[in-house]
Every structure is written in C-alpha cells, then in structure tokens.
Amino acid sequence: MGKNVLLADDDQLLASLLNFRLKKGGYTVHHSVNGKEVKEYLENTMPDIIVSDIMMPYFSGIELIDYVRNELKSNTPIIIISSAGNEQNVLTAFELGANDFITKPVSPTELLVRIAREIDK
Amino acid sequence: MLIPPSQIKISIITAPEFNLEYLWWLTILFFVLSVVYFIGVFIIRNRITSTNGRTKDKKVEFSPMINEFLFYEDSNTKEEKMNYLNLKVQIRELIKHNFDREVLTEVLLDLRKDLSGQSQTVLIALYTDLGLHQDAYEKLGSRKWQVVSRGIVELTTMEVDESYGLIIKFINHRQSTIRKQAEIAVVNLREEGIKYFLDNTKFKIAEWQQLKLLDVLRHKPNYTPPQFSLWLTSTNTHVVLFSLRLIKYYSQNGAEQSIITLLKHKNRDIQAEAIECIIDFHFVNALITLKLVYSKASNDIKIAILDAIGELGTKAEASFLENLQLTERNFNIKSKVIGTLNKIDPERVLPTKNISSADFYDVELEDAMQEEELSIIDNHEDIVLHDGIEDVSTEINIEVIGTEEITKIPRSFEEDITDKETERVMNEDSTEFEAELQQNDVKKVYSLDDIDLSFLPHIKEEVVFEERSKETETVVDNEHDLELEEELTFNFLPFVVEEDVIEEVTTSYNDDDFKPLFELDDELLGEVPEEISVNPLDNTSKKMAHVFDWSTLNSENEEQHEVVINTADSAEPVISFENDNVSFAANFMPQEDLDAMVMLENISELGDCRELILLYQIIEKNSSEVVIERANELIQKFSYQSPRPNELFSDDNDLSDSVFTDIYNLADYETKLMLIEEIKLVGDEKEIHLLENVIQSESKKLVKKANEALEYIKSQLLIVDDKPNNTTDKESILNGDTELESKNTTKYKRPVSNENGSTLFDQLCSMSNSLYKKKDG
After folding, report:
1. Which CATH entry fits the domain spanning A4-120: 3.90.550.10, 3.40.50.150, 3.40.50.2000, 3.40.50.2300?
2. Most buried residue among A51, B111, B242, B667 by CB atoms closer than 10 A?
3. CB-closest option in B107, B110, B114 to A106
4. Phi, psi at residue A77, to the nearest 5°?
C-alpha cells in the first residue's frame, strides 16, 4: 500500500494526468475538484501529503493550508501548484506553512520527485 | 360681435376606428414569436450544454488514453504494452469523427499549456503523430478569419515547424488578428522568422505586438539574434523602431553611425529610441548631432537630448547649455538645461533668486581681494605640496632650478589676481562674481596646464636610496637640467617645494643614524639646513635665503665645490662636495662610546622616564662628551615631556590660533551656526580673528551670530581685565616659566571650562561627536 496523496485541483485534465502519474509512481491518490470536497475528505482522513492548486472554487489553496495548519493542527506536508507570475500567493502559502511549490506548466516527473522528498522528510 | 359661450363648439379629437380582430391577431403573433424565440433559446442552450457534456465526456474518455501515451515507457510490462497498442488503435478509430478530432485537439492544446519537460515533448509528437496538424492546415484555407486564426494558433502552440511556409503568407494579411497571429507564429517557429518578418512586413507593428514578439524571442532556447542594425534602413518606420529596441535589448552597439543618423529621423519615436540607444551605448560621437538636431526637436525630444548630453557630455558642452539657458522659454526644458549643466559641471549654476547683493554685507572690496589672493596662493601651495611631500622621503637626487625661475611664481599669481580684481570691479552682481570666482579658481588654480610651475624643482623618482649608511648623494647640479627637463615630463614627476626638500636633507645630515658614526659639530650641522632651507613661497624662509647662493650652485661653469666643515677637534674635512657628490670623512669613535651611543639611541626610541636612572649611570661611567651630551638630552626629554606654556601659546604654535578655525572652514551652514554658538560659550581672544573673518565674509545670519559672539567674548575679556588680581598681560605670562595650570594664566585666559566644569577640549569632543552623528544621519 503506497502513501496517500490528496490531489486538489479543479482542472480535470491536469488532475487526471497527475493522478495517473502518481498512481504509476506507487501512490494512492484521492482527487478532489474543489475546496468543499477537500474539507470533507480531511475531516475524515489525513493523507500523507497534500498536493493542491492555489486557485480552486469554494476553498482556495491558501485557505486549505490555513485550515490544515491552524484548525486541524496537522504537519502534513503541503505542496502548492501555482501559475507562473503568482509569486505573492506562493509567498503567502509559505508564510502559512506550505512545504514546497511547483509552477505551471508542471512536469509530472518533477512533482513526483518533490512529493517523494517531502514524504521522506 | 361677441359669441355667447354656449354657442362655441370645441372640436374633440376622436380616436380612429380600429378593428378589434386585428388587435387579437397581433397579440397572437407576438405570443407565437416569443414562444419561438424561447424555444430557440432553449434548443440552442440545450445543444451547447449537450455539446459541452459530450466534450467533457470525450475529454474524460481521451484523458486516460493520453495519459497512457504520455507516460508510456519501453520498460513497461507486456500487459501495459498490449494495452498501449489497443489504445492506439482505439484512438485512431475515434478521431475519424470530426467532433472527436476537435475534442482531442482541444485536450492536447490544454495540456500543452499545463505540462513541461518530457511530457510536453511527447504531447507535441502525439499531435503530429495523430495527424491533427492536417486539420490545422485546412483551417488556414478557411474563409472565416477566426478559423484561420485558430489554425495558426494551433500550429504555433504545437510547434509544427513544417507549417512555417504556409503561415508566412499571412504576414501582410489585411485582417489584423490573422496578421498578428502570423507574425508571432513566424517568429516562434523558426530562428530566421524574425528576419523574414522584418524584411517583409508592411504594416504597423503595434507596441503590444512588439512586446509579444520580444517575449517570444527572449524565450527561445539557444537563440542567436541577428544584427538588427540591418533593418535600420528599412522604409517601414515601425520596423526601424522595433529594430532599435531589439538593438538596445541585445546590446548590439556596432551600428553607431546608423543610430546617430537616426537622430535626424522625422519620426519622434525613432529619435527618442535612438537617443536611448546612444545613452545606453555611450556614443560620445553623437554629441555633435545631438546639439545639431536640438533646435528643431520637439519638447520631449529636447529633454531626451539634454538627458543624453548630461550622460555623455563634458564641460565643453557647457557653453551650448548656457546659450540654451538664455534662449529656452519652456520652463521644463530650461530646468532640464540647468540640471544638465550642473550634472556635467557640478555647481556651475548657482542660486540666483532671493540672494542678497554684495553691498548688503558691507564687505570692503579690497579686503576681500586680499583674502582671495591669500586663498589662491594657499590653494596653490596645497596642490604642490600635496603632490610632492610624500615622495621626498624616498628621493635623493634633487635638481634645483635657478632663482630666476623662482621669481616667476609670485609674478604669475599677481597677474592672475590682478585680472581677477579687474573682472571683479567690473562685475557688480555678487552672485555672478561668486560663480565667476569659482570658475576662475578651477581654471586658473586647479588646472595644471594654466599654472606656471616651471619654478618647481624636478625630483627624479628612480633614484635608489642604496646603503644610506655608506653614501648619501645629494646632487645639486644644473649641468643636466636642460637634458632632464626634456626627458622628464611634468605628469609623472612630483613637485616639491624646497621647504620639504630641506627637511629631508636636514634629516639626512642630522639623522640619529649618523651620530654613532661621525662626530659633527652641532653648529656646523646647523648651518647646512639653514643654508639650504629656502622656500620661495614662505616669507620666513626667504629671510634665510640670503645665506644660500643659488646662483653659484646653478652656474654652468661650476667648478668643484668643496664645503669644508671644520670641527673643533679635527682639521680634516668631515663633509666634502666632490664632483657633485657628498662624501663623509669618517671619524670613528671608540668601541665603548659607540656601544653607549647605540644604547642611548635605543633608549631614545623605546624608553621613557623609567630609564632616567640608567641614563645617570651612563653619564657616570662614560667620559665621552658626545655620549654625555646625548644622555643629558634624553634625561631632559624623559624628565618632562609636557609642553611648556610658552610653547603652547607661542605665535608659531597652532594653539595660538582658534581651534575652531579648521572645523569651521570644513563645516556646512548649520554646523557653522553651532560652532559660533559654541565659540560664544567657550571662546576667548583666539576666536576673535575667526569671528571677524566670519563677519566679513559670511551670510547675514552667520554674521549676526558672529557679531553676538564677538561682542560677548570682548565683554567677557574686559571684565577679566578689570579684575585687580589680573595684572599680568599675555606676554608676561607667556614669557614666564609657569605651568599651564598656573593661577595667573587661568585668570587671564577666558575660562576654558564652562559652568558644568567641562573643558574646551570636552566641548570640542562633544561637538565632534555630534557632527559625526549628524553626518551619519
């Protein structure tokens, strides 16, 4: 049984692709398309790592980090996916407790390496 | 005749008769139309929704297939490979339908934006592998501009290199969207695309389009830009402008003449861009053209030109700018001119508004002139001394130029000063005078070319000071003067005023190193520096100059001069000048005396008052006069090292002048005010001279403060003088052998400590601290 990864991204195509790659990499992936789903999932289960897009409906990636760190009091590693030129959001994410970030366009292989590194920490 | 009101008939407007049946028919018609409209909207909306749903489903269907294709590896298992082959067959079946092809294309285009690295490369390969680029080619032939545009975008995004030949024909398309997409595609697809585009485009290149094209270029990996100067001759002004921007971006500074020529271009944007290039590449040769085009340039170009002159210009451009300052009427440009003037020549333009005239300060012209003379001479001395002093210690070959040349110095300065005086009298405006004075100072004093420095002796730097204890060569020779003057240029030789040379010569003769080796009569030794110490710029040294006969030293028919220094003990010459060399006749001391002298010299260098006992013992043990004398000197030295009062307050001592003078001369306006306040608090009669100078030369506020301080100090001095105990005058105190802390001295001098008990030194320290704090912000 691989490590649990929560993938939160409203872009179905990209999420499907990353999901496929992560599963191929040996991870168990749960995909949520919006903040509500993410919140519901986290209330029941805490994954080994969270990979989240910053821009999501209902519940942004920034809010997700705040929720995980301050309400759930969890130290689960969080990797943020952001668009290029969105540095301010990335900085805010780091301030709130994000562990790493990756910018679009994403290299799935690179993401896999980053996830492995964060889990190994 | 009046008509009774009852008979008046008012006509009432009556509605036309209307058949109610028509009204019903119209109502039914509008109702039907609205129903049709709503049904149409409903149908279209449903169709769009269903299409989106189908598209979404298709995307979901295609997504795992694409994932399989993207992450397929040769190392996959047999089952995975079988699955991959099945998917390939399946997807080829699917894309036979146009809708499926469009969805697949859309998916690939979306993923292209979100993916990078190896996945992106595989995705692009998949696009062409599935033949989707053929659809894009077909779109290029469409009549609809939006379809053509979409086709170009697809081919550009998927980097289909083969489409380059098809797209370039849209470069000059009349539809601007197609044209712009084609421009980006051409530049993006091939490295030579930018050349083709710049060669062939006939339309305007919008600013935004230029930015996008530049963005495409700078994101191209391993891109080698062509020489964009080739397009500076283009007939399309937008191409020229874009080329100039590309030249600036890629720092291609090989087109100096072309860019300078573009300064004369009729298009203002090109002119402005050319000026920016000139500033960036520092094309100094453009200054002439810049000044040439200035007169007919628009205001913004004029400001740009002034910016360029400020960056590239030298003081040679000052006259041009001064003319502009007089002629320009536009406030912004005039301000820019002044700013540029001050940039190339700082403080050339001084404040003129609300500045009081010279008469306002009641300064006598002659006094000011005298001060000016002194300051100029001082400045000159400073320059010369600064250049020469440091190097003297390592130099020994000294060539002295004759007295005739020395006499030239003051004359040349007198001429300068006289010229200045004439100019000054002619000019009544004080501000202009000040500006001119500064210019004159710079030009006539600080410009080495303008100063007649021929009177200065040349010091040959390459002289090696070898084995100083064995031989010391002091060459006072004029035979080689002319040759050396030809050989030695002014630039690298330091200038030395004789005063410093003499100090060095004096130390060379009178140095402690020689004492153990030679027995020299002090009187005779004292004569040597006296004879040589002639400073043409110093009045005190001039008094001694009569002893030294320069003419004999410099005469061409100089024979062997032998200066014989007779000592009381020995008839042999101790120092002789033979063939322009100084030779010493050694008179060796006994070994014991020599050892004692060595010890004394060591004590002199390293010892202090604790060595007094040892010194007394040396005197007791040794009989040599030289040793005893030296020991006595050291005893005297270590017994009392503090300055004597008469030394402190002698005219030669710096302490006789106000300690505030140096600080005041270097201070800014606020600091000067503070200093005057402090002088008022702690100053005495030494500050009177400084305050008088301030009153004569400074601004109104400073003068007022200085007057207050001066009056206060004078009043304090009078009070002190009136006291019965204070009967001694300054001379009596200074001549007396009293200590610094003696009662009379402290009474006579204005109290150097204030009410808090802090001394003048404390005050100065605190002021110095506050000044440094202020300077450090």
Report:
1. 3.40.50.2300
2. A51
3. B114
4. -60, 140
Name every residue whose Cβ is closer than 8 Å to that of residue B231 and which is 6 or more positions away in sequence: B198, B199, B239, B240, B242, B243
* B225-349 placed in CATH 1.25.10.10: yes
The reported pTM is 0.51
Query: CB-based contact (8 Å) between A3 and chain B?
Result: no
Q: What is the dihedral of CA A63, A69, A74, A80, to 10 degrees?
A: 50
* CA–CA distance, B143 with B102 (Å, rounded to integer): 19
Given this model, what pLDDT does residue B711 score?
86
Q: Which of A17, A21, A107 sits opposite B111 (nearest CB)?
A: A17
Backbone torsions φ then ψ of B402, nearest 5 degrees: -65, 170
* C-beta atoms of B67 and A16 within 8 A: yes
For B108, name the nearest residue in chain A, comparing CA atoms only: A13
Is the separation of the CB atoms in B156 and B219 below 8 Å? no
SS3 A6: strand
Distance CA B578, CA B562 (A): 6
C-alpha dist (Å) from residue B18 to B11, B21, B23, B28, B517: 21, 9, 8, 17, 148
In degrees rounded to 5, what are phi and psi of residue B462?
Answer: -80, 5
Statement: residue B675 has pLDDT above 70: yes
- Domain boundary assignment for chain A: 4-120
pLDDT at B364 over 80: no
Task: State the Cα–Cα distance between residues B402 and B57, nearest whole angstrom.
Answer: 108
Global ipTM: 0.89
Q: Which residues of A touch B118 (CB under 8 A)?
A: 107, 109
Measure the N-to-C terminal CA separation of chain B; round to a whole number of Å. Answer: 105
For B380: left if phi > 0, alpha if psi spans -120 to 50, otherwise beta; the answer is alpha
Size of the A and B interface in Cβ pairs below 8 Å: 56
Span B376-427, pLDDT tens digits:
555 544 444 444 444 444 343 434 333 344 333 444 444 444 444 444 444 4
Distance CA B255, CA B258 (A): 5
Q: What phi, psi does A106 have (nearest 5°)? A: -95, 140
Report d(CA B94, CA B132) in Å as an integer. 13
Give me the residue spans of the domains in chain B: 225-349, 365-588, 592-641, 649-775
